[in-house]
Amino acid sequence: MVKTELIHVRIDPRTKENAEKVFEKLGINTSYAVSLFLNQVIMRQGLPFSVEIPEAPRSESVPVDSRKAMEMYAQGKIDYETAMKAMKKDS
Questions:
Q1: Domain tally, the chain
Q2: Do 40 and 58 belong together in one domain?
Q3: Per-run averaged pLDDT (10 residues), the chain, 91 residues
Q4: Which of 23, 66, 83, 84 could anchor a disulfide with 90, C-beta 3.0 to 4.6 Å?
């Protein structure tokens, strides 16, 4: 029998819920997704994706409501679609 280790991770509930929806569409659970991620880290000897700070528009040039929507999305308070709708209304 294969031994397993337990990993405890604190994550925003909304992030967890949204990720689990994606995993369900893929036919996997969160444990399997984490295992896939960790195996990719081992195989690539690093993160399996690029980590970078995207170039953001200068805040002075972004309307106030759009700026608020971007901040709320960055904090995980609203989802991507809601942020996009808010920014489209503001433009």
A1: 2
A2: no
A3: 89 94 95 95 92 66 74 84 78 59
A4: 66
